[in-house]
Every structure is written in structure tokens, then in C-alpha cells.
Amino acid sequence: MAQLWGGRFTKETDQLVYNFNASIRFDKRLYAEDIRGSIAHVMMLARQGILTDLEKEKIIEGLERILDDVEKGKLEISEQYEDIHSFVEATLIDRIGEPGKKLHTGRSRNDQVALDMKLYTRDEVNLLDNLIEELLHAILSIMEENVDTYMPGFTHLQKAQPITLAHHMGAYFEMFKRDHERLRDIYKRMNTCPLGSGALAGTTYPLDRAYTARLLGFSGPTLNSMDGVSDRDYLLELLAALSIIMMHLSRFSEEVIIWNSNEYRFVEIDDAYSTGSSIMPQKKNPDIAELVRGKTGRVYGALQALLVSMKGIPLAYNKDMQEDKEWAFDAIDTAKNCLTLFTGMMRTMQFNVERMKDSARHGFTNATDAADYLVNHGVAFRDAHGIVGQLVLLCIEKGIALDELPIEEYQKISPVFEEDIYLAISMETCVNKRMTTGAPGKTAMKETLEIYRKYMEEY
Q1: How far apart are CA 232 and CA 319, in angstroms?
Q2: Which residue pairs, CB below 8 angstroms and at least 24 apart, start in 5-10?
Q3: Which of 78, 219, 261, 277 is catalytic?
Q4: What 8-state DSSP symbol labels residue 147?
């Protein structure tokens, strides 16, 4: 078919070249944004006297009918067109005739696609932020219910000191809170309108770019037309933010996978978020957590691909930049799906409270507190460290926890120990005496929860 830009050419583009060049296969998802931007552009053209009011009305009515027909399935976006912009404009001309040929006055596909992608990305940032909010609510709910749920804290994947499930979940609340703030920051920085930048050098038509920006909800127009058409920083920022979100989800997933294992049995994943084995009837696999962990690399790949595509591009627009869409679309879709499913898994997951506490006890997470007991009774810390090390070794030999070792055994190694050692090394004491800001103790945790509740109210 004839192209919208075909006047200068004397023969048809080779079909393989055409197919390689075309973007309609993936940019057709921008149809609503393309029409929305076109309507704003036409309203501005009429306001500036470049179009008549009658032309404006016919064009807008035609665009709105195209949008309605596409969304109702009455009009299929045909891949015989080069891109979504060509489809919309050609369909409009076919339907309303001469007025449709004036739609493209004062703009280029370069600023048009820049606008479409910004409109789309801006909406997706809001959707992603809403999904982060849902996950934060789920995490906060778990925290509120588990202030007294004791579990081992880990370093090097080794049991280290006792904490609470609320405290552990609070670490992820902090991570996703930062993700939320990054998304808000991206939205604010990207919210300028490129339409009116033309191909790269603006236009001789008396456009009111500030008016167009207001119609589309932007804070204002971009201030350099070359940057306006060639800027993809906002996509790179979003892909970087999505990569961090996926990294947080992946870390969380890894812990869920470990906690779900037969050796830990800290959690029971709901049947709706698990699968079985085709051969082993006893299996209940944490597939959602594993897939989230696996899909993280996919989002990382999108960021790296776009960085590489953009790194050698001179000003202003180049066809390389068409590569931004497939990577961005896939990364956004992947992150949205992962956030939705992971949140659902977290909301339905059951925690084995007694198993967690028992794991902390038998993991000797209270050993540091036993040493502190000796220090508080006048023993030098280095000596106390060695004494408690001997106690741990003895407990390992007997297959018991420190709080199960008889007082006589304690006193054989150090006569400083008294009956109150058992209170000093109880999980409750070990956790709740840690009261500094950010610590797992109940006093500190109640203060943190209040801060988190207020944060979510103001979200």
C-alpha cells in the first residue's frame, strides 16, 4: 500500500524491508494514546486558527468513532499499516475525507510517537504504583498480626539472632516503600509534553504548546525540541526502577521458597498459588515464587537492551529508538503480573508460628544473649564468648536447645550462671529488650507500625 511519506519515492519498499521497518505489530497497543494526543493537537490547532471549528469537530468526531470501534471490536488494527500513527490517520482520512488530511499539520511522527509513549508510560507508572500499594498493605497486615511471632534472623543464611516475623516483613516494607517513592519521582520528572517538537526543530506554525500540554495533563512542554523527540531517559528510569522492584520480589521469593521447603516448614502456600508433580504425588511446589524469581532476569534484560540501543545514538531521532517499545512493554507487563500474583500469594500464605519459634530456639539464636548475661555479671566479653561456645557445643552433642540444658551443666562450665539465665535467653526477652528505633522489640515495633500506618493513609 502507499505510505503516508511516499511522495519522494519512485518505487515500492521491498516487502522484507517494509516488514523489518514496521512497528504496527507491537505499537498498536498505543492506539488510545495516539488518538488522545491527536484530539488535543486538533483542539490546539483550531484554537490557534490553523483549523476551522468545523474541521476540528469533524476530525475529533472521526477520531472518537475510531477509538470506539476499536474498543468494541468493530475495527481491527490491520498490520498492513506501518505503525499505529499511519493506521489512525489513514483510517480517519478514509472515513471523513479532506479534513482528515489536516490532522498531521504542525507535527511529525517523531514528536507524535514520543508523546504516545509518554502518555502510555505515565499511565503505567500509576498502575504499577497502585500494585506496589496493594503489596505494602499485604505486608503491613502480616506485620500487625505477627508482632509476637518469633523466628530466627539470618546472616550468611545461618541462624543468627532471634527476631519477629513483623520485623522481617518490615525490611520488605522499607524496600517497596522506596520503590513507591522512585515511581512517584519518575512520574514527576517525565511529565513534560513533547508534542510540538516536530521532527527535531519545532515548526513554523504558531502552535500553543503550553495549551496542548495542559489538555493532556502535563506540567508543561519540553523546552528543547531535539531532546523532546530523542529523550528516552524516562523509560530507562522506569526500567531501572522495575529492575529494583523485581530484585526485591526475587529476594522475597527466594525466602518464600526456602521457608516452604520440608527442612524449614515456616510457611504453607495456598493451593491456588502452588502446583504439583506429574509423577510425585507428595509434591507441592512454590511455582509462583519461582517464576517471579526467574522473570527478574527478563526485566534486567530489557533495561540492558535499551541502554545498549541508546548509547550510540546521535541527536536527534533515529530508527534505533523504535526498539524501546517491545522491551518496555514486556518489562511493564512482567512486573505488573509478578506484583499481582506475589501479592495474592502473600495474602493467602499461612505461617507456622510454633515451627518458626522452635527453629530460633534450636538454632542457638539466643547465644549472644547468653554471653551478654555473663558480661552483665562481670565476665569479660571474650571469655563469655568462649564459655557460651562450649555450651552450644554441648547442646549440639545432646540435641537440645540452650533453654533445655539443665542449670547444673551451665554451672559446670561457669559458676556465674544462675536460674535467671533461662529468662535472659527466652525468645521473648531476647527480642523485646531490643528497643532502639528499627529493632524487633515490641516497643520499637509498635512505633514503626504507627509510622507505616500513617504512611499508607497518606499514600
Answers
A1: 13
A2: none
A3: 277
A4: T
pTM: 0.93
Q: Is 248 one of the annotated active-site residues of the chain?
A: no
- Residue 259 to residues 83, 244, 263, 267, 356, Cα–Cα distance (Å): 48, 23, 8, 6, 10
Q: Is 274 exposed, middle or buried (0-12, 13-18, 19+ CB in 10 A)?
A: middle
Q: Count CB atoms within 10 A of the CB of residue 282.
A: 7
* Range name among 12-26, 71-85, 178-192 with the lowest pLDDT average: 12-26
Active site (annotated) includes residue 277: yes
Residue 36, C-alpha cell as written in the block: 488522545
Model confidence band, residue 6 (pLDDT cutoffs 50, 70, 90): low
CA distance 360 to 6: 73
Q: Which of 215, 282, 302 is nearest to 38 (CA)?
A: 215
The grid cell for 306 is 535499551
* C-alpha to C-alpha distance for 151 and 167, rounded to whole angstroms: 10
Question: Across residues 279-285, what is the average pLDDT?
Answer: 81
Q: Which residues pair with 351 in a beta bridge?
A: 267
- DSSP category for residue 198: T
Residues 172, 176: Cα–Cα separation, whole Å:
6
Active-site choice (85, 137, 156, 167): 156
pLDDT digits (tens, 9 = 90+) for 376-414: 999 999 999 999 999 999 999 999 999 999 999 999 999
Q: Which amino acid is at 182?
A: R
Q: Cα–Cα distance between 341 and 225 in angstroms, integer?
A: 41
Q: What's the longest Cα–Cα distance across the chain?
A: 101
CA distance 64 to 45: 17
**Minimal CA–CA distance to 326: which of 27, 120, 17, 19?**
27
DSSP string, 326-360: HHHHHHHHHHHHHHHHHHHHHHH-EE-HHHHHHHH
Q: Distances in Å between the alpha carbon of 52 and those of 136, 203, 209, 409?
A: 51, 19, 18, 97
Distance between CA atoms of residues 206 and 45, nearest Å: 9
Q: What is the reported pLDDT for 2? A: 46
Percent of the chain with pLDDT over 90: 92
**Is residue 47 left, alpha or beta, with left meaning phi > 0 and alpha meaning psi from -120 to 50?**
alpha
Residue ranges with strand state E in 187-327? 267-268
Residue 1: the pLDDT is 47
Query: How do residues 139-168 score in pLDDT, each as one tens digit?
Result: 999 999 999 999 999 999 999 999 999 999
pLDDT tens column, 212-264 = 999 999 999 999 999 999 999 999 999 999 999 999 999 999 999 999 999 99
